[in-house]
Amino acid sequence: MDIQAATPSVDPPPGPSRVHPRTLLSSALLPHLATLQTLESTLSQDLHALLSDRTTIDSAHTNIKKLLPRIEQVEAEVGSDEHGDGTSRGGQLGRSAEKKEGLLKRIGVVNEIAERVGGKVRGLDLELKRVREAVDRLNEVMELKTSLEILRTSIASQDWETAARSCRRAMDVPQEIMEGGFAARVVPTSEYPSLPSQSLHDLRSQLLHIFSRQFGIAAASRDEVATSRFFRLWPEIGAENEGLESYGDFVVGLVRGRNMSAGKTSSPLYYIAHLTALFESIGLIVDQHQPVVEKYYGSGRMKAVVGRLQEEVDRVVKGLLEGWEEERRVRRLLSATKNATTAARSPFSPPPPQSVLSSSHLSSLPNAATSLLNTYNANRKVTPSSSTPTPHPADEDTGPDPREIDKLLRELTGMTSRWGLYRRFLWGRLQDVDPGSVPPPSANPNSPLFPPSLPPSQSSPDGTNLIETSGSQQLFHQSLQNVYEPLETFFLRHTTDKALRLSISDTSSRPHLSSAPDDTFYLLKSVLYRLIAGSSLSTLERMTARVAEVIEIDYLGGVKRKMDGVYAGVRSAGVTGATQGGTTGGGGPKAGSEAERLEREMRGTFVVYANDLDVSADHTERLLHEILESDAIPQAFLTEEVEKAIAAFAPLNALADKFRVTLKASLDQLFNQLVRPRLRAFIEDCYKGVTYTLDEDSYAEAEFQDVVRKRFARGWDALVEGYRDSFTDANYQAFFLMSVEVLVRPWEKLLMTMKFTELGALRFDRDLRSIANFLTTQTSFGGSREKFIRLQQISTVLNLGPDEDPREFYAQSGIPWRLGRVEYDTVCALRS
Fold it and tell me: What domain of life does the UniProt record list for this protein's source (predicted)?
């Protein structure tokens, strides 16, 4: 095969001489490009034919290379053969070698041609790439020139939408083309000789000025269509920040132009109404305008507008708070409360028990309580007394009027609650914004002449930080810390002290209570709800601890001091509770009657105080449960703050336990002074003349008379008289169980001194059961039978049959014995 004949021609077709593209004029570019494309097509066809034939040649070349080792081996073998025979084989090998060399030469020629053709193709590709780049650059320059011309025409014809689109297309031209020499020669004209970048900058600045002016005119005339039109044009020319700034001025103007609520500054609702109107107008703007802003400017861009609005809010809030402090004379009130707090205060000294129930003091209580309740509990109905109260020295109030403080605190927390609602609204609108959800329009990122607007996270502060670091937040925080906290503390301390001093004991109700718990916890409830309404977590955390301290020191401490006064009266009067039957040790009937009267008065006074403590503990638990289970905290605080707000009430949770600890100690003291001495001889009086050494006749007589049960019932009724109907259920239960427990021990000791026949043991068992049943019927709660377990085990041992072995019964009966082995043997010895 003739390789030269099989190889196609690779010479390029005739055509115009090729020149460098940079030397061509714009009119010659397209014809030259067409020629190059034709040449490229011809070369590609020739190369394809050459490469298809080269595949066969490469295959043959590969096979020959595989045969070379075998040929060399054959040549070596031929050299060792005989001369004649070797000559014949040598001729064959020579012809094979000639064919091999011919093939190799032809392969070399093909490779040389392929390399030459490939180089020419690569050169054509490079030229084609450069031509395309030149065409693209030409198109970009022509687009720039056309856009600038349309932009000038649109500005002249006031076609602002077309002008904005043309400006956008011009801004999309890459920087290197806009500032290149070709654009500098082609784009400028005799009428507009400026460089393209300068022309675009001037035209864009002119558009910005026009848009701002037209937007201002539309905003001033309240033309919603024109306002929306120019508001949408700013992002088209990459002026989001300028547009948001003008839009912010517009919405601030809307806020400033709102209708101010009428009224006088002396009205308690004046400042609250102004703040409410301010926050509502801004909330309405954010609610209505946020979707529009984020649609055209990108997600999260409303933060910039809110920041501008917040500046206006800070200005208005500062003016309102300063006016409020001046109008309400807050500084004077703070100074007065400080002087009243730091003034020397003598410890609360309750009047002696005799004066608590004296007629002169009782006549002054209704009006005093009416004054307190009318001041702090207007919703409660109190019937005032017609008599004029005689002021008690301890009732004279010092310091500012609590009613004035209460009004001021309500007004301040009303304002802070409005701010808290506004703050929660903005938190919900401005947090958790995904900046990439709606990408804001921007200019060409490759053009430093018109840099894109910063992303929302950089162009404006985070929405939550914007609110937390605002001037309004700081002003309200300072008002709560410097005004609310000291005034609220003074108000609670003063009213708590007054509620204790002017408390009225209602002995006609069951149980006997004074007005102090209801008044105090009504005030405490209003204080806590007012504290929550302030919507300040830091204030809540500080004030709950302070409120708990005031209740513990002033209220609980005041009740304890009153009870100590009762104890002092008991000791000074010599009342020990040992008098019974109307006589005392040696003073005669008159002295005994006086002692009983004093005991009844002191007992009634103490019962009221003990009931107050029990009711106070119950009020504390119910109030905290009501607050923590209500929607007050979630409605006043952010979701992130609710858990901390609930935890802030921990100091108040401990108050109920402190009330009950004090109550337990007080009941023990009452019991030891007034009840325990009477219980010492109680069982002995029940068993006077009673024996359990009975035969059948005496047993029948004892069964008929039932002396022990009757005496016990009569004595028990006398013992609990004055307690059963006056104590609260919890206090009476504690008192009842203490009395039963104190009765059991002397009863056991008395039994250890007696002898029992078989019928006597049976009679004792009946007496024991009847008394236990009697005590059970006296209450609706259980627990008294447990106190009789040892007595019941004594009765069981005494009633063992004669054929039962006491020792075996103790070991094998399965009874969980409360009696020790020595006590058991002692009881067994009582049987006769």
Answer: Eukaryota
Q: Say what the pLDDT of residue 385 is.
A: 31
Q: How much is the pLDDT for 96? A: 63
Question: Which of 59-73, 574-588, 711-725 has the highest average model confidence (pLDDT)?
Answer: 711-725
Question: pLDDT tens digits, residue range 777-797?
Answer: 887 776 678 888 999 999 999
Give the H/E segment covering residue 514: strand 513-514
Helix (H, G, I), strand (E, B) or coil at 327: helix
CA–CA dist 797, 742 (Å, integer): 23
Q: Range with the lowest mean pLDDT among 68-82, 190-204, 360-374, 786-800?
A: 360-374
Two structure tokens written together for 551: 């209740």
> What per-residue confidence (pLDDT) applies to 123?
78
The whole-number pLDDT of residue 532 equals 95
The number of residues in the chain equals: 832
Residue 71 sits at the vertex; the CA angle it makes with 66 and 77, to the nearest 5 degrees, is 145
Beta bridge partners of 580: 583
Handedness of CA 195, 198, 201, 204 (dihedral sign): negative
The amino acid that residue 487 corresponds to is L
Alpha carbon distance 41, 47 (integer Å): 10
Task: List 505's β-bridge partners, or say none.
Answer: 514
8 A C-beta contact, residue 409 and residue 530: yes
In this model, does residue 575 exceed pLDDT 90? Answer: no
Residues near 621 by beta carbon (within 8 Å), at least 6 away in sequence: 656
**What would the two tokens of residue 154 be?**
């649109």
Q: Is the pLDDT of residue 7 over 50?
A: no
Q: Are 459 and 306 in contact (CB under 8 A)?
A: no
pLDDT of residue 265: 83
**CA 293 – CA 494 distance, rounded (Å):** 53
Question: Distance between CA 520 and CA 492 in Å, rounded?
Answer: 9
pTM score: 0.69
Of 84, 7, 97, nearest to 51 by C-alpha is 7
- Structural contact between residues 264 and 318, judged by C-beta atoms closer than 8 angstroms: no
Residue 580, φ and ψ in degrees, nearest 5:
-145, 155
Query: What angle do helix axes 758-777 and 707-720 make, rounded to 10 degrees?
Result: 30
Separation of alpha carbons 727 and 315, rounded Å:
60
Query: Are 466 and 303 within 8 A, CB to CB?
Result: yes
Sign of CA dihedral 494, 496, 501, 504: positive
Residue type, 341: T
Q: Give the other-Cβ count within 10 Å of 464's Cβ.
A: 17
DSSP notation for 119-155:
HHHHHHHHHHHHHHHHHHHHHHHHHHHHHHHHHHHHH
Give me the pLDDT at residue 56, please.
66
Helices 402-430, 330-342: crossing angle, 10 deg rounding: 120
The rounded distance, in Å, linking the Cα atoms of 789 and 811 is 18
Query: What dihedral do alpha carbons 106, 107, 108, 110 form, nearest 10°?
Result: 90
Within 10 A of 772 (CB to CB), how many other CB atoms are there?
17
Q: Which helix (H) or strand (E) holds 506?
A: strand 505-506
Q: Are 767 and 709 in contact (CB under 8 A)?
A: yes
Q: Quote the crossing angle between the two packed helices 588-629 and 516-533, to the nearest 10°.
A: 20
Dihedral angle over CA of 421, 423, 425, 427, nearest 10: -150
Measured between alpha carbons, how far is 732 from 60 in angstroms, rounded to an integer?
121
As a whole number of angstroms, the longest Cα–Cα distance in the chain is: 176
222 vs 215, 219, 227, 228, 251, CA distance in Å?
10, 5, 8, 11, 11
CB of 114 closer than 8 Å to CB of 61: no
Cα 487 from Cα 468, distance rounded (Å): 25
Are the C-beta atoms of residues 301 and 459 closer than 8 Å to each other? yes
pLDDT of 214 over the 90 cut:
no
